[in-house]
Amino acid sequence: MVNSPSTMLSKGEKYQEVIRDVLAVLDGEPDVTARMATCVSLLNQAFEAWFWTGFYVVDKVKKAAGTDELVVGPYNGTLGCLRIAFGRGVCGAAAATRTTQVVPDVHQFSDHIACDSRSNSEIVVPVFDKAGELIAVFDSDSESFGTYDDEDATHLEKLMAAVFSI
What we know:
Layout: H1 11-26, H2 32-46, E1 50-58, H3 60-64, E2 69-76, E3 83-85, H4 89-97, E4 101-103, E5 121-128, E6 134-142, H5 150-164
Antiparallel strand pairs: 1-2, 1-6, 2-3, 4-5, 5-6
C-alpha cells in the first residue's frame, strides 16, 4: 500500500487508492466479516472528516422470522446504534429502498436516528451479495455538513460491489 499525503490527493484519487488497497488486501479472503472490517479500516484512514464508519448487517435470524432489521457490524468510531429497523433513519431507508442515501444535513432528514449527536452529514450505501440479496448497509457519518456527495456514492457503490458481490 502506498502511503501518500492524503491532503494532496483529490477525493477521486483517494478513492482510487483505497479501492486498490482494499482489493489487494482482500484478494482470496472469503470471510464477509473480514471484508467488512478491512473496508472500515482503510476507508476510515483515508478520509479524515469521517468520524464513524461501519456496517449494519441484515439480521438473518430476524429475517427468517419475518422481521427486517439491521444489527451493528464491524465499525470504527463512537458507540453505534445496536439495531435499526428497515425504513427507520438513514440506514433503514437505504435498506428498505435498496438505494444509496446521501444526506448533506441529517437534521433535515425527517427520521434521522442520532446515535451520536456530533453527526451532521451521512452517507449510507446498500451492500449486496453475488445473488443480489441485501446483506448489509455501509454507513459513514461526519461532523461537517455536506461531507458526502454523488462522487462518494459512486465510488462507495463501486467498492461495495467489488468486495461483496463475489
